[in-house]
Amino acid sequence: MITYLSFINPFKRYPKYLIATAVSTLFFVAFNALSVWLVAPVLSVLFMPGKSDPTTNAVVGEGLRGVYDSLKQWSWEMIGGGDPQQVLPRLCVALIAVFVLKNVFAYLQMHFVSYVEQRMIKDLRERVYSHVIRQRYGFFDSSSTGELMSAVMNDVNQLSVTFQRVFTQAVRDPLTVLTLLVILFSISWQLTLAALLIVPAFGIIFRKTGGSLKRKSGRIQEGMAEITSALQETISGARLIKSASTEQFESERFEGRSTRLFRNALRMVRLERLASPLSETIGVGIIATVLLLGGQQVLSGSLLDAEDFIRFIVVLFSMLAPAKAVGNLHNYLQIGSAAGARINALLEKPQELLNETGKPVTKLERGVRFDNVFFKYPTSEHWILNNVSFEVKRGERVALVGRSGSGKTTLANLLPRFYEVEKGHVLWDGQDVREFKIPDLRKHVSIVSQDVFLFNESVRYNLTYGNPAITDEQLHAAIARAQAADFIAQMPQGLETVVGERGAQLSGGQRQRIAIARALLKNAPLLIFDEATSALDNESERLIQHALEELFRDRTVIIIAHRLSSIRFADRVIVMDAGEIAAQGTHDSLIQSSELYRVLTQQYEREARVE
After folding, report:
1. Reduced to 3 states, what is the DSSP secondary structure of residue 585?
2. What pTM value is reported for the model?
3. Are 564 and 522 contacting, i.e. CB atoms less than 8 angstroms apart?
4. Distances (CA, A) of 178 to 183, 289, 501
């Protein structure tokens, strides 16, 4: 419970609602006990009218029994005593009034606690999402999308059930049990102890089932993460699945995961449901024991009179339900703890220090430099970049070429600090980029990636993302420079047209031009262009080449080149091989001096002819 509250502390966030909940709970417990108390006089008046008024021969005992006798005498005095035919209507009116007040405060308790429950879930879900979105870039490379989605949705939903049970029952039911237990002891401590001898059986049951429920709940949450991940991959990879005709294979794979989830869920539900009949059986054993021992005392005329015994039985019956709920509470906490452990593990991952102290970035005056840079991924033992050094002067266009896996994209990702160098320095105007504030640094770097990402929102939303203050004049100017005006004008709602998930309603060339227009609107001094103009028709490529001329103008550009058409924009070409710089120079000089570069350009030419 302490772990759950540490996620979102309700005592600091919603103190007024918790105080109102506590007050309502106290009144509910009081009127609940009073409602149980009044049942005995009613039954006594009905079935034993000659013995129903203890005020005529009241004997007050000592200790807790004395308090009970005084309360019993006081309650009869409040009712008025006298003729049973006159007492009964008054008792019924009192009973109705007490039950109404009891339920009013029960509703008020649920009213206030519901706000706390729902706000806690809302705040927790927002906190988990905010924590995930602030993770370092490398975190998303090593994390499953489905697992992260499951944490934000399924694990938080599972915790919501625990929160609901805890805030509804954690105070009310134990307090109710304690109050009724005091009444039972005040009536007959001998009978109460006899009844409680069977109670340890409850503890044994819930202790045995609780640990098993926690393990099964953990497996269920893992299964839900698998299901979510499979669903996300299926939807994202629908084109590949269709082209490979593997629908049946994917269905069978999904059914296998679903079956494992079904089996674990069924075992957990069976275990949960087993607790109820076992609890009821034990409860019947307690009642039977009390009826036997107490009934003998009433029949022999010792210790208990009829009204005391009736009240004892009514109170005992009334205590079984909240006592059972208190026992079930342990199981709910065990179920919730599995989800809580997963969320806690996620929240313990360190965030990217976006608001760390550092120098501001104002502009790019001299250029950027990579100085003896080494880098490797946490899961790899090999250097992805090995002692890389080169400079890109302000206004210069440098193309990075090399085989797949040579370190081109990794090198570019070090500039905006998506990754941090292991050794060496990445310098911006002679200062290490680690000295700058991350948000400030990234505002001065535009990235047009190989895989253009578009939100399932309007064209306008995607163009102005991160720049909400863009004017219509600036927007239309950037669209025209990116050669995107014609196809946007032909869309059903123009700029307000929703592009679909990841821009599914647009062609590859249209997505590229949207990305170029977005970079133009950001207007950062340094541009990283991860070229992705493959698989485009000639007309789309011609338009994109014109758009790139606009984009590259008056900017410092690092081009991750995959085609010869991109290299022609470069003032200088750097050839990467196995994480090192194999050669650098102009296109013409490298054709003469670098065998690797000649092989790469011949490969680019062959791919261009095939396309």
Report:
1. strand
2. 0.70
3. no
4. 9, 21, 57
